[in-house]
Amino acid sequence: MDTKKVGFIGLGNMGYPMASNLLKAGYTVYGVDVNKMNEKRFAEIGGNIGFTSATLPSEVNLIFTSLPTPPIVESVYLGNEGLVENGKTSLTLVDLSTVSPELNKTIAKAALQNGTQYLGAPVSGSVTGAEAASLSVMVGGNKETYDFALPYLKAIGKNIFHVGEDHGVGTVVKLINNLMAGIHTQAVAEALSIADAAGLDHNIVYEIVNVSSGQSDVFRRNYKNFIAKDEYYKGAFTTELLLKDLRLANYVSNSFKTKLPLGEALVDYFESNIKGYEDKDMSTAYLMLTEQKVEPAK
Ligand code: NAD
């Protein structure tokens, strides 16, 4: 089997630029997406299309997935027409999506029983990181399988870590990261709402905080790429996906019996206020807060 052939399922905000970078690195890439417009734009830059999760495994030795939610990941891997059912011994499956560590482990068990290798390998670095092939990738799974997948991972990311042999352990790190990204996102929203009330120019606040102790990469990203441009769609990590990850972080915390006072409060807050902001970037937490209609006091 040609090792330069690779499959990619889920050509969305993250998947499309990652699959594009595999093409640029010289791989022959077979792209699959339920949204046929996404497959079409991938074919326009040289990707192969026309396959499904059932037919892709016979074409390649490695398949990446970058899918939105745990139930979708579960069906693509474990469904009747799924990757595991149609796998083979020479196949390695690498899930770049953010799911629960339990789902990573369930899929790994089913895949290994079928003789197929599997890695849980969530990524961080936003759409800009996916475009620049500079993502961080945190991998859980067998070290030999990791070594096999490493050259492919280097085409999409810059900082690649083998966290451990447990298939869900990379995801635990990813959820820690996104819990922090979520809390920072809400901190940015609250900070700018005070700036508005005080009549302060956002740019001045950003410039000062950026060289002071409140500085964060999330402030840079959310402010520079979205809030300052008043543009919340292009390059998005949607509020809906952030809420998914915050719920997963709370779920993991409960399973370890640790406490997340802010994490829990943030899930409650987003659940009550997300309507109308689901498909916009997470930085829209600023609008969620400032556009809120406050009932006048009686
Ligand atoms: P997205 O919704 O933009 O892309 C997901 C793609 O999967 C879509 O194109 C969709 O049509 C496709 N899809 C859905 N169901 C499918 C199926 N059954 N078969 C094939 N394709 C299917 O989401 P995204 O922002 O690219 O995120 C993908 C994953 O990466 C998520 O798990 C997310 O949490 C994670 N992630 C996202 C970012 C980000 O900045 N957007 C950063 C890090 C990690």
Automatic annotation (TrEMBL):
What lineage does UniProt assign to this protein's organism? Bacteria, Bacillati, Bacillota, Bacilli, Bacillales
**Record gene name:** Hgd_1
Q: Where is the 6-phosphogluconate dehydrogenase NADP-binding domain?
A: 5-164
Signal peptide position in this chain? none
Q: Which residues form a coiled coil?
A: none
Stored Gene3D superfamilies: N-(1-d-carboxylethyl)-l-norvaline Dehydrogenase, domain 2, NAD(P)-binding Rossmann-like Domain
Instruction: Provide the 3-hydroxyisobutyrate dehydrogenase-like NAD-binding domain boundaries.
Output: 168-286
- Keywords, ordered alphabetically: NAD, Oxidoreductase
Q: Which GO terms describe its biological process?
A: organic acid catabolic process
Source organism:
Oceanobacillus oncorhynchi
Q: What GO molecular function annotations does the UniProt record carry, in alphabetical order?
A: NAD binding; NADP binding; oxidoreductase activity, acting on the CH-OH group of donors, NAD or NADP as acceptor
What's this protein's name? 2-(Hydroxymethyl)glutarate dehydrogenase
